[in-house]
Amino acid sequence: MTGLLGVLLFLLPLTSPFGEATATASSVDNGLRLEVSVEVAGSPVAVVVRGLAAGNVELEPVALADRGNGMWQGIVELPRIENIRLGFESIPTRGPATLSELHTLIELGVDSAIFSIEREPVRFGEDSDPLANPQGQRWGWLGLAAGAGALMLIAVWSIDSWKSKPDEEADEAEQSVTADEAENHIVD
């Protein structure tokens, strides 16, 4: 599903030399694609956006393009849909680089609804599966035991009825023989 999903909610002002920063989600196919922009005072040689994912895992830095008038923009692609934290680094011609504070994507303007959408299908045995929790497992075992008991009753019933059929046929044959003998005695 491509298209503009993120909504620019507000502009976030950062500390000097950084001005307003924004992030907009443009696609959620195979991860998250962000359009990031920041205003930078002065004339830096380069501006880099740095990201931190869950567990303070640092993401690859992405260089932003100079759009003129102190505006720097670029595209950041994430392999997963996650509300990471972004910071900016201004690299001047001389002296040390300046880092901005970190802000979440929601603080930068990405719509929070994007992060609440469940994307992966639920598979058997995961926590959301009712048979994976202890109560569900108990019901599963109870159902299995009930099914086995029902099969045993059917087996006993069919064996019992099979055994009783030859006896009934023998009784009927014996009764027919005695009826024939009775007729023969009457005739004599």
Structure description:
- This protein is α+β, with helices and mostly antiparallel strands and 188 residues long.
- It folds into two domains: 12-116, Immunoglobulin-like (Sandwich); 124-188.
- The protein is 31% helix and 30% strand.
- The chain contains two helices and eleven strands.
- It has helices at residues 113-116, 134-187, and strands at 12-13, 18-27, 32-40, 46-53, 57-58, 62-63, 65-68, 71-78, 85-91, 98-99, 103-104.
- Strands 4, 5, 6, 9, 10 and 11 form a six-stranded antiparallel sheet that branches.
- A hairpin with a 4-residue loop joins β1 (12-13) and β2.
- The protein is rod-shaped.
- The chain starts with 11 loop residues before the first strand and ends with a helix.
- Mean pLDDT is 76; it is low at 1-13.
Number of domains: 2
Q: Output the structural class.
A: alpha+beta
Q: Tell me, what's the shape?
A: rod-shaped
Total beta strand runs? 11
Terminal residue distance: 102 Å
Secondary-structure element string: EEEEEEEEEEEHH
Instruction: State the low-pLDDT regions, or none.
Output: 1-13
Rg of Cα set: 39 Å
What CATH calls the topology of the largest domain is Immunoglobulin-like
Determine the fraction of residues in helical runs and give it as a percent range: 25-40%
Sheet having the most strands = 6 strands, antiparallel
CATH architecture of the largest domain: Sandwich
Please name the fourth-level CATH homologous superfamily of the largest domain.
Immunoglobulins
Number of helices: 2
Classify the beta-strand content into a percent band: 25-35%
Oligomer class: single chain
The CATH class designation of the largest domain is: Mainly Beta
User: How much is the average pLDDT?
Assistant: 76
